[in-house]
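Hi P.,

Sorry for the delay on this. The queue was packed all week, but I finally got your sequence through. Input first:
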Amino acid sequence: MPARDSLKFLQQFGGVAVLLWMASLTGCGHAPAAATVQAKEPAEQKDSVQQKEKEAEPKEKETEASVVVRVAPAQRRALEEKVRALGRCQAPPEKLAKLAALVEGRVDKILAKPGQHVKAGQPVVQFDTTLAAADMAEKSAARDSLLATLNVLLAPPREEELQAARLAIEQAKIAEKRASATVDQLRSLRARGDASAPQLFDAEQTLADAQVQLKAADSRLALLQLAPRAQAVAEAQSKITEAERALASSTAKCNLLTIRAPIEGELDSLNCNPGQTLSVGTILGEVVDARHLMATIWISAGTAHRIQAGQAATVSPTGLSMAASAVTGIAGHVVSVGRVADPQTGNVPVVIELPDPGGVLTVGQVVEGAVTVKKHEPLLAVPRAAIQDEGEGPLLVVVRLGKTAVLHPQLGLAADDWVAVAGTDLKEQEPVVIEGGYHLPEGTLVRIDTPAPAEAAKP
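Then the structure:
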């Protein structure tokens, strides 16, 4: 082929023609097959490029909508104005009791363990009672002896004693009658001169003695039948009273050797060991009834006038977010507002009673209290996380038809984790971006990742 014709052929058929031309020049016998293979390769390369372009188109579209955001619906909420302050949780005075040794003694037994629920009056620690028990037994025996003496004094005479007294009277009568007869006989003999004067005198003296013995027997019987003297009974009763007082004192001292729970609650701590000798006034532990607690928060004096007894309040542990505090806050009410400000801080104490803390709080824990001072009518509100400030005032991002719409609202009342908004076309239940929407321009394609947190969706 001439050179001019070859150049023209190359311009018309390109690389395939070059290959065919080179094959013809070399004079290879397999030139047609090689030309066919080389002709297929550009076609396959073209198809591969088209396929890659088609695969790249969805990825480019996906890249355009790859901004992932989290949203929460705008809601109408009855927002509440609250005054928040920090304070400490404490037990009411009647719900926290100390275990103290009222007498000196040696610890004998530990009858309860820390963390155990105890009832009022339940023994917790037992001191050694050997000496106290012996003293109490001695005082009891003395009292019983005096009681027995009084019982003997008040007891009526026995029938045998009365019978003996009656027999003594009869015997005295017989003796008196015999003596009287002897005197009469001697007097008759004396008148005839047959009896001497001394004989008559002796007989008269014997008669007088018999008469005295009869009167004595009558008196003994009457004495047995008389009631005991009032003075003797009073004296015996007085001695018994003193003995009972001594026994009561000894019993009280013995009872003081048993340390009992003053109130019902949980044994929070116990600081003693068996064999340890404790002096008077030593604190052994504490019992607390955590079913009723109170929190004292400190409010500035300028805000304290808005707080009154009876207002609803919530108390939650510190370190929680506002949303978490709203969920875990323990409901209570204000019971008192202090009238004397702290001289160092100028704050006023506000006491909140918590009837049922549910075991969330502990005595002495730092807490945050929120007192509701005013309730408003339902307002259109968004989560606080939806409000942004990029230097041109507050804004929020709304997702509409998969794209962002930037609104510039007027902010109103803020309560808990919500802020009232106005001055825009935002509608109730429209999704507002609460995460991932910072610096998103108007009309950005977005993809919603997950629904809003449960606490943000609660009415």
